[in-house]
Amino acid sequence: MDAITYFMVNYGLYSLLLIVPAALLGAGLGWFTWGKYRAGELESRQRLEEAEQVTEEAEIALSKERERLKTYRETAGLKGSPGSSSDFERTIVDLQGDNEELEKILKVARKERSEVEASLAAMAQEKTSIEEELAVVKNAREELEKELASATAGASASGQSGKKDGGGSEERELAAVTRNERRKFKLEKRALEKELASAERDLRRKLSAAEKSANRQLKTLEKKTRGLEKQLEDKAAEVDRLSTAGEKLDADLMNERAGMQKAGEELRELQGIREEAEHRLGEVSKQRDLKAAELSVLQKESDDLKKKLELEADQSRKNRDRLEREVSSVRASSAALEESLSSLEADRADKVGVLSSLRKEHEDLRETMARMKKERAGERGRLEKDLAELRNEFEVVGERL
């Protein structure tokens, strides 16, 4: 019955050899997912910084244009130039265009924020799926360890009963049980290998899909960046145009200085137009303040997302440390099992030697018994022959008497 114990120990070791690679595969996938999560965090942070930089550049250009407009207005007020309402209307239109560009930039920032939140949700979902897979692997390992312990106990009990009973029929039953257990182990091993291969294929498919989506998002962001750069170039050209128009306005002011007395009524109209323009500029500034407040809210939400990402990174580090501790415990348990296997093999070798010596003694006893039977048969024949001779002699003596 030692063969059953040996087989069950080997079965447990093979099961551990299947569980340990599965646990290592889960740890590797967790590490890869955490690295991908970290890369996505850095990329999202870089996108937010680029969007903030573009917004700051647009605000700086807008403030420069407002300062230039203010300078032109002050110059017109000092020199008494009547000006024209079309210039103010054009300036207001330009400012409204700047506000529309700021709104577009804010929309891009909101969209990037939603993409970051979606990526965070996807990464959290992947993390939970990996943790569930690790829990399943851990439960399978515990079940296999329980089966190994129960099988070892049953094998030792059956070994003790076999030593008491003995016989050739028990050896045949042992061989049949060993074959059935081996066949069962091979089937379980194939099923586990198929499950591991299918899980690996599914994970690779998911990772390839995630990489493709990340590449698509990167291309889209590159296109958006090129578009923003083009808008900045257009804005620089618009600034140059406005500076040229300012220089032309200075020349017109010098030329129109002679007609200052005739422009009283036009100056009053200009004052009315200026008040209306100031009112519109106040509304535009209010809209800009609202946009700036919304941008500050977005920046605050971005900081919150960064904090969440840092917390997730700390949690991933803790999970990695826990997995390393579990792998070290599995290695220690496998080393203990190897030591117990070596001790069992040594005990089996001793028992085999004792069994061979007992068989040799049994053969010697059988030969001795056969020899004694043969000697007893010869002595019996001689005694029967002597008895027959004595009977013959008694018959002869009786006849004589």
Q: Report the major sheet.
A: none
H/E topology pattern? HHHH
Number of domains: 1
Count of DSSP H/I helices: 4
Low-confidence stretches: 78-85, 159-167
Question: What is the helical fraction, as a range of percent?
Answer: over 70%
How many beta-strand runs?
0
Head-to-tail CA distance between termini? 75 Å
Average of the residue pLDDT scores? 67
Gyration radius (Cα, Å) is 49 Å
Descriptive account of the structure:
The chain has 401 residues and is mainly α. It has one domain. 96% of the residues lie in helices and 0% in strands. It is built from four helices and no strands. The chain has helices spanning 2-79, 85-165, 168-255, 264-400. The longest helix is centred in the last third of the chain and has 137 residues, at 264-400.
Nutshell version of this structure?
With 401 residues, this protein is mainly alpha-helical. It is 96% helix and 0% strand. Helix 1 (2-79) packs parallel to helix 3 (168-255), helix 1 runs antiparallel to helix 4 and helix 2 (85-165) packs parallel to helix 4.
